[in-house]
Amino acid sequence: MPKVVKLQKQASRTWEEVLDDFLFQKKAEGKAERTIKDYRVRLSKFFQAYPDAWGDYEALRAAVRRYFAGLADKAPATYNLPLEYLRAFFNWCISEGILAANPTAGLHKRKDEGRARDIPPDVLEKLLGLPNRKTYTGIRDYALILLQLDCGLRPGEALRLVPSDFNLRACQVTVSREKAKTRVSRTLTFSLTTAKAIRRLLEVRPDDWDDTVPVFANQDGQPMLVNSWSARVRKYARKVGYPLTPYSLRHSSAIMFLRGGGHVYALQRMLGHAGLTMTKRYLALTENDLAEQHAVASPVKQLLPERTRVRRVKK
């Protein structure tokens, strides 16, 4: 008979209580607040969908199967992220003696064969011409678009930056570990054009806004939310006639950096990736890119240059 695995400490503890303990552990490990919030939202979503599963391992395992069966036709990222979070939570439960086995055992992450979407340069040029730079919001949006394109910042990182994070003379910005998604600080360089745009934004900033007010704040001096910035980018996208998001600006930054001759390891540092796995996605060049580069860099052509043949002379 198959082994029956029971929950070890279920009698007096709800999944909400266990989740709170798990999140305290993540906070003690130094995980970013956004990561902790994501854990709470995604894990709560699962247990709210299957509230009776927590009391019995077989019911929990069946619920996990049903949950991911419902994500079968979704994009790999939509499937993989909740799997990663649930697996981490259940592994912690095992270490605490709450579970004896992981209900996600046998489920595997899906391979994402897609590559980052490439925004045509003419679309980006049109986008940069849309913000009304006679208004605060237009000046802010223009500077933020430039910064994202120049540095490939995550939207959440860019929106948390304060004036003291910038060194405009050196054309540099520091994303502190508190603001970085990966909890690793990094200093990035940007162009003089971007520096001028940010300087202009700081010039129109109200005098009573102190250094705690983000550089890209809303008109009331409150932090602009990622959802709000996404809505503004979508508004510009409708005018351009091309689908755009704050993250597509980050992707375009990465692709253009590599096409301009940037090194993949430098790109990894710029994007704040913990490893090269995600960064290498940007190496997936289009077929035209590959054909053009091969025409220039073909090893055989370098060894045996093609010679123009003499045409047959007509009599």
UniProtKB/TrEMBL annotation:
What are the BP-aspect GO terms? DNA integration; DNA recombination
Q: Where do the Tyr recombinase domain residues begin and end?
A: 114-295
Q: Which Gene3D superfamilies match?
A: 1.10.150.130, Intergrase catalytic core
DNA-binding recorded as keyword = yes
**Which residue intervals define the domain Core-binding (CB) in the entry?**
13-94
Superkingdom of the organism of origin: Bacteria
**Which keywords describe this protein according to UniProt?**
DNA recombination, DNA-binding
Pfam families, sorted: Phage_integrase
- Alphabetical list of PROSITE patterns matching this protein: CB, TYR_RECOMBINASE
Tagged with keyword DNA-binding: yes
UniProt-listed SUPFAM superfamilies: DNA breaking-rejoining enzymes
GO molecular function terms listed in the Swiss-Prot or TrEMBL record: DNA binding
The text of the family note is: Belongs to the 'phage' integrase family.
Protein name listed in UniProt: Site-specific recombinase XerD
Annotated organism of origin: Desulfofundulus australicus DSM 11792
